[in-house]
Amino acid sequence: MSKTIKIDCPVCVSRNVFVIGAVEKLSCDDCGFLFTENSQLLTGKCLICGSGSFYYFSPFGLSFLGRDSVCYVCEAHYRNVQIDNPEPSFSEASFARAEQSVEARRFKERADHWH
Ligand SMILES: [Zn+2]
Ligand SMILES: [Zn+2]
Fold it and tell me: How many angstroms separate the CA atoms of 107 and 112, rounded?
């Protein structure tokens, strides 16, 4: 099973899907926004924004379709990737906390300054 990240670009909103480990740098197909310089380093934190807050998400709410671990900050969907302790499902409170985090601010700044 390949490890993948699915993420909507914060700059141009196009959907990107990457196989982790296939290439080192992950950048947006459409606008070139650099998601990460180093996709090889799996530390349990989000590769894209560095946040450690995740929740589990099943497509259509059907757990037999498998679960993604989703980053609260940048909404990267990780598939077949080991993430430490995602929350069982999306929580408004955790989302609000994540939005206030340093990682969220940095991620937003990177997107705002991308041209
Ligand atoms: Zn883009
Ligand atoms: Zn993230």
Answer: 9
